[in-house]
Input
Amino acid sequence: MLVPLSWLKEFVEIDIPPELLAERLTLAGLEVGSLTYIGIPQGKVEGVRFPKSDHLVWDREKIVLGAIREVKPHPDADRLVLAMVDYGGTELEQTVTGAPNLFEYRGKGPLEKPLWTAFAKEGAEVWDGHSETLQRMILKEKKLRGIPNRCMVCSEKELGIYEDHEGIILLDDPGKPAGTPLQDVLGDVLFNIELTPNLARCYSILGVAREVAALLGKPVRYPSFEMVAEGSTIEGEVAIEIQEPELNPRFTLTLLRNTKIQPAPRWMQYRLRLVGQRPINNIVDVTNYITFEIGQPLHAFDYDKLKARAGKKTPTIITRLPKPGETLDTLDEKTRELEPHNILVCDTQGVLSLGGVIGGAETEISDSTTNVLLEAANWNFINIRRTMQSQKVNTDAGLRFSRGVHPSQSILGVKRGIELMRQTGGGSIAQGVIDQYPRPVQPAQVDLPIKEIKRLLGIEISIEQILDILWWLEFKAEVKNDVLHVIAPEYRMDIGSGVVGRADLIEEIARIYGYDRMYDTIIADEMPPQWANTALEREERARDVLVALGLRETISYRLTTPEREAALTPQPPLPRGEEERDHDRLWDAGSYVELANPLTPDRAAMRHTLLGSLIDNALTNQRTVTRQQLFEIGQVYFKREDAKLPDEYRRLGLLITGARRATGWTQDEPDAPVDFFDLKAMVEGLLNGLHIQNAQYRRSSHPSLHPGRSASVFVNGQHLGDFGELHPVVARQIEWESAPLYVGEFDLDGLLADVNANYPVKALTNTPPVLQDIALVMNDEVEAARVEAVIRKAGGDLLKGLTLFDVYRGDPIPEGHKSLAYSLVYRADDRTLTDKEVATVHQKIVKTVERELGAKLRA
Amino acid sequence: MLQELETIYKEALEAIASVRDSEALRAWERTYLGEKGSVYGMLRSIGKLPKEERADFGKRANEVKEALLAAMTEREKLVSAAELARDLEEGQIDVTLPGRPHPTGGLHPSTHTLRELYRIWGDMGFQVYRSRDVEDDETNFTLLNIPEHHPARDMWDTFHTTTPGVILRTHTSPGQIHAMRELGDEGNEPIRVILPGMCYRYEQVTARSEMQFHQLEGLAVGRNIRMSDLRGTITEFARRFYGPKAKIRFRSSYFPFTEPSVEVDVECFLCGGEGCRVCKYSGWIEIAGAGMVHPTVLQNGGYDPTQWSGFAFGMGPERMTMNKHDIRDIRYFWNNDLRFLEQF
Ligand SMILES: [Zn+2]
Output
């Protein structure tokens, strides 16, 4: 909300610099996002910093208040006039201008009342009013259609006040002599205040002024809420029927007869423009002005139109919910289909406006209106907010009502509004106010034990200080038996009752007292029991292990689409074996958590797998690198049939592709791309690093993976993940064309549950080992893991080491066979082995593999 | 023959003077001292001499041999010193060339910051408590004193799921309710936890705003927790995170689940409060929203607000990382471009 300092000063005396005021407001919860200066220089206050402003500062000598005494025609140009300006000098300065708002005074001779304006002398710096972009210019003497000219009467744009203008700026009599520096007349600062939802009461200049008054300890100068009502009574002219008092707690009306629709006075138009409103006519402008001034939105009806609708009888204003199928043409030229919760202002003939939000077109004020019926009503803020959201309409009135306006404000608004309309358009106000207020709201009352303040804030603050703060905030407060009895001012809707009311009051005291006066203390309370967070510690350990293995951590969007994830399996699905049912849930389109309001179509559901984001990351990165080794740890989400909330599991995903080693300028290690066994080494490294024992690897049936080059990991019989080469059909589907992708995904919670924290450490021995190699020829289908298991079993305690060092197929090994070569380490922990002992166990191994695997020693 | 020996001797001494490397020295050795070399040749042909001359010749020949061996040893020293010098010179490399790249892994920047936060808060007695991403409306809003249709809900643009009443959490604050209910023993035990997690907002993704981001919420509930304790605790945190001179300030603010509510600023650690681009020339950087736990929220967590009190705060790890490293585009975080990740 924009708050001009000049307007604020109407309601409260301000004796500190604007920058300091901005700081005080910000600390008190009214965050001043920025200050916009008009004409005056930016101030400097010790300890308070704002970005440097590059606004136009009006030179005090060269830009002054001017009084146009006469407007003469230009001898050679219809679109130019000669303004004779009194700028406080000894004679008038003739100034050539094309301002259309002077044309009506052309050739009228000396003016009875001067036209007050802004006058810039030769050498003054102003904004270039004719430039599309913001450009400064220095005034120099030049001829305009033959007439010499060196000065200028200025528009709002040239002065840097606002863009929108209709010629030069014209002011009401400022009560200051011509030649006064313009800074002292129009110099101003606009406070751009960001209001949190609890500060509904501050959505007006008066509302902000109350805060300023409390912060500075100054009284609020309230405007007059009296109306000069000299016309015959309003009784009998209009009636009100409130059908939904919960949604429309109060409705008030006043009537102005025989008024004239005309432009609002210049000061009012100027102020409206400063806060971003376009002036229309005095009636509409007054409704806006009151909205901004005191925060009570108003709505003006053409009374005669209402009367005509009522068949010349007394019109009745009815507030109610819509009937089925009702519509309303609103002022923004839309036909709205009304929803059951939209509270309406109607008459006996139908809908007039969407209550508190936007008026209807039919009964609005027009240039021929003479009798104005003014509405100031009150609406349930939650219902108004709902209507604004569902009807997609945003108005200044709706904004305020949706945050909450107290019903006490209606009567103030309806009186002040009608009086300003009378002052600006003439006519006579009907005596009285029609006021329906079926359930008057009592001001909030709170009893606050004084010790609560110290209990919750930890500050020592005297009762006098507390009472003082509350008094400046316009609370009524007294202390009895160490309890504060407080009545909130009637405009406040944010003060609750009971323990909530106490907290509300404590916050008021704290923020006006100032958080900068609060000391730092150390928690004196008992320390709660501390516990070991094993899941988190192990997860972080997993990250460290993966980093040590050379993997880079990624964190991705957890939103995707079922279609995107479906592309991670061959489409259409390939025929599958029974064991693949294991993975069914992963691709079950029905178990996605889907968004009702996705921001973009590609992020519409919560992911089932990390593979999608890892692959997306690989696709992103392949533009710049050829070698990628990535991991991600994060949740996946599965909707449940039997519960409202989905299952969330933590998963660990891996992806590697490209060269095994990083390449650089040395070019000396041309390296093969990674394959299955690089990824397997990482999986083994992860399990070893986490001290997970008894892992078994079996051929995987994961549909995203190459069936021949992928494995499932089992720990203690539990399936904890799959890894391997991305299925070639999937690679094609995702348009991956570089070196093969190797990916894996694991159940992190399952893995971490298998961590053996108390893993045994082997003793170090110095007895000499005996090293022997063995090469075995066997049928191709025998799996390496089985060979290893058989050798280990036969080798018993003496076999301490077993390393596969060669796998060979081809001549002279028979077709359909392979040779596996192992180096074996024999050792006893307590003695040096004899040759005989070694020979015995080695023979046992040879015999066992032959018997169990049909393997023969390679010749 | 003696004459011949003397000639060989002279010749050998002359030849060795021009030997420059060990290969030439070996060749010289072969020529004069080798088994097939001149000196041995002479010694072998000693039998051709008359007997009376043999002794003298033999003596002289041995003298010559010893002298040549000595000359060779001497020369060897010179040659190897020269060769070492040459090797060292020829072995020079351009030490300004970059090192051979070695594949390294690394953590995501958000993880770095989260770990730092876990460590600092852990040292201060705040332990990590995690809760779910997909929440019900009630825990994310209603129990946190944000009723349905209340304008305070405008503070969070929410992703709704197709299941009515189920949303993606807009903040980690629902974790307050879970933590109080799970750890509070029906309002009888104090709590000190931090609640990290991913949050989601229906917000256009730009350089300044993300639809997904981490939050780290803190919660302390006890029989005697004061707002001045919140100040002291955050000051302590700021000193540990930003350095021993860190200064904080409280600005009054509004969150439905705390009252009083404040925004916490730290004096800009980049410009020392003088004003710079990162602090938007204010000298202050916002690091947290905080406040005293609202009595309604305490009640919803099972505590009697007249006997118990608490404070809560919320921080943005990505925002903190951005300020620290002058990262100007929040989209870098989930884009996972290795050129970004590898800088951490
Ligand atoms: Zn700074």
About this structure: The mean pLDDT of chain A is 93. DSSP finds 22 helices and 40 strands in chain A.
